[in-house]
Amino acid sequence: MRHRWPVPSYSENGNGKRPPGRPRSEKARLAILRATLKLLSEGGFTNFTIEEVADRAEVGKATVYRWWPDKGALIADAFAGSATPHLRFPDTGSVYTDMSRQMRQLVKVFRSRRGRIVSAILAAGQSDKDVITAFRDRFLWPRRHEAYTTLQRGIRRGELRRDTDLDLVLDSLYGPIYMRFLIQHDRLTPEFVDRLCALVLNGAKAAPRNRRKNKRARRMRPQISAA
Question: What top-level class would CATH report for the domain 10-82?
Answer without folding.
Answer: mainly alpha
